[in-house]
């Protein structure tokens, strides 16, 4: 049985998408369809996570929309 993570760290999202931290921040600010970050705690140093399933769904939707543009 293979398990998928429920949430993943900001750094891991950058690695999965192969983008810089600043690029991910830009996407979060400007793409309303991108999953909202989940901040654990109130301090500036609190870790930030993303829901893995939402991230995969966003990625698949982006792929589909790009495929439609290419046709």
Structure, described:
With 71 residues, this protein is an alpha+beta fold. The chain has a single domain, classed as Arc Repressor Mutant, subunit A (Orthogonal Bundle), CATH 1.10.10. Strands 1-3-2 form a three-stranded antiparallel β-sheet. A hairpin with an 8-residue loop joins β2 and β3. The longest helix has 19 residues. The protein is globular. The mean pLDDT is 91.
For the structure shown, list the relevant keywords.
three-stranded antiparallel beta sheet; 71 residues; alpha+beta; Arc Repressor Mutant, subunit A
Blueprint of the fold:
Layout (H helix, E strand, L loop, with lengths): L6 E3 H8 L3 H10 L7 E2 L8 E4 H19 L1
Antiparallel strand pairs: 1-3, 2-3
Radius of gyration: 13 Å
Strand content: 5-15%
- Structural class of the helices, strands and pairings? alpha+beta
Question: How would a textbook summarize the main sheet?
Answer: 3 strands, antiparallel
> Quaternary status of these chains?
single chain
Assigned CATH architecture: Orthogonal Bundle
Fold-level CATH name: Arc Repressor Mutant, subunit A
Number of helices: 3
Short description:
This protein has 71 residues and is of the alpha+beta class. Helix content is 52%, strand content 13%. Strand 2 and strand 3 (48-51) form a beta hairpin.
């Amino acid at each position: 049985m293979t398990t998928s993570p429920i949430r993943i760290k900001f750094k891991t999202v950058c690695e999965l998408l192969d983008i810089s931290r600043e690029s991910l921040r830009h996407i979060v600010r400007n793409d309303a369809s991108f999953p909202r970050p989940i901040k654990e705690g109130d301090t500036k140093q609190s870790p930030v996570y993303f829901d893995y399933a939402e991230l995969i769904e966003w990625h698949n939707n982006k792929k589909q929309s790009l495929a439609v543009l290419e046709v």
